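idk why but the lab printer keeps eating my pages so im just putting this in chat instead. protein + heme C:
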Amino acid sequence: MGKSDKWLLLTFLTIVAGVVGVAGYWVESEPLNIGRYYLPNSGGPVMFEHKAHTDLTDGCESCHHDLLLSDDRYDCSDCHEDFVAEDFDHTDLKTIEAHSCGTCHQIDESAQAQSCRNCHSSVQETDEVSTACIECHDAEYTADLLTHDEMREVHDQDCGSCHYSRVISVAYHEQCNRCHFVENVELFASQEGNVRCEMCHLK
Ligand code: HEC
Ligand code: HEC
Ligand code: HEC
Ligand code: HEC
Ligand code: HEC
Ligand code: HEC
Ligand code: HEC
Ligand code: HEC
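predcted complex ->
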């Protein structure tokens, strides 16, 4: 390593240490103060214990999925001898009990958790789920040109340029129930296996 390289490295490390220090300070000085959410809706209001759930679950990204990096992933081989990603559908990978999104996807440390409503609205404008690139670009633009994180980046994190996100109630029902059924199906489902609505909706 040349002398100037060493200086460069040293300067770089100093900046990194500074940034990490400041970031650590911010996190420590701003404890998450959201105890609970009262979510009124036509099915009966839902009391959601945010703080309790944060303590119960692995990480913020189990719900705030926009904190996930889709491309930076752990390999199946980190934990398994005989599974490779190519043999599975993503839908199947998500529903394996022992997996949460963060089992495979790394976290975007620079992102902030947001309200689900920022992206999942209360009315479904269309039945379609996504837009084709060709609606806005030339025919040579196809989804396999870029990875998902790159697509997010070139579109300034505007998910809506490609997705019609599902409505808020469906987003909640799907996400909340998926985890509850893994954690404690006896509590959250009836003997016939139906969702027990009254576990969440107060009358
Ligand atoms: C079990 C699911 C779940 C977990 C885990 C979770 N949250 Fe949340 N969070 C929610 C829901 C639901 C809301 C209400 C969102 C809304 O207003 O639409 C919320 C709201 C928030 C908001 C307010 C957003 C806004 O602009 O109104 C912040 C900030 C937040 N969460 C941060 C965190 C952080 C940090 C963690 C991890 C320490 C975390 N959450 C863990 C589900 C969760
Ligand atoms: C951080 C660790 C981790 C990573 C990474 C991971 N898994 Fe898993 N996976 C587990 C654990 C723990 C289980 C439950 C215990 C078991 O069955 O081995 C599991 C279970 C499974 C099962 C169900 C096994 C069964 O017999 O029911 C499949 C299939 C699976 N994983 C596939 C994958 C694939 C494919 C990948 C990569 C895309 C992957 N996993 C990445 C930890 C991981
Ligand atoms: C067992 C590992 C595993 C789990 C669990 C998992 N993913 Fe993935 N995810 C992958 C792999 C592998 C890919 C890339 C291949 C693919 O698209 O099937 C991927 C791709 C993605 C993409 C990019 C879309 C695309 O097709 O390029 C997004 C977004 C994503 N995952 C979100 C999630 C969310 C949200 C969850 C939790 C609800 C989740 N993932 C759970 C392994 C996993
Ligand atoms: C609703 C319209 C819309 C759709 C659909 C859309 N894009 Fe874009 N895209 C844009 C706009 C607007 C920009 C410019 C964004 C900016 O500069 O902030 C852009 C920028 C880009 C860029 C980088 C700049 C450039 O022009 O080369 C790439 C690459 C790209 N899009 C690829 C895609 C791909 C791949 C798809 C389909 C998976 C897609 N886009 C779907 C509107 C769209
Ligand atoms: C340039 C287009 C584009 C942009 C912008 C984009 N996505 Fe995607 N996304 C895709 C494509 C293409 C897929 C894979 C095909 C599919 O499943 O629709 C995908 C898949 C996903 C999936 C997996 C769907 C599933 O059911 O597993 C999630 C979650 C997702 N995107 C979230 C986001 C979020 C959050 C944002 C914004 C921060 C975003 N996307 C921005 C094109 C885009
Ligand atoms: C930055 C925008 C954004 C935020 C914030 C966001 N989502 Fe999403 N979400 C998306 C997009 C885009 C998709 C892919 C389109 C789709 O499937 O609806 C998606 C997909 C989903 C899915 C289906 C994919 C899966 O995980 O199986 C669920 C469920 C979901 N979101 C629930 C939530 C909940 C609950 C919250 C709040 C805790 C939330 N989302 C916050 C943009 C967002
Ligand atoms: C990552 C997993 C996970 C997610 C996502 C999740 N929960 Fe939970 N929830 C739990 C666990 C674990 C418990 C405690 C279950 C037990 O006592 O065995 C729980 C308990 C509850 C209870 C209390 C039930 C009782 O004992 O009376 C309610 C209500 C609830 N959750 C609502 C929600 C809502 C609303 C959402 C979606 C915004 C949600 N949960 C998302 C894991 C989750
Ligand atoms: C895990 C908790 C949970 C369970 C279980 C649950 N819900 Fe919900 N439900 C929610 C949340 C959270 C919302 C959205 C609140 C909001 O809009 O902020 C919601 C919204 C709704 C809405 C309003 C839809 C709209 O578009 O305004 C209806 C109706 C509803 N749920 C019916 C049901 C029924 C029927 C069941 C049983 C089959 C059920 N829910 C089970 C949490 C739950």
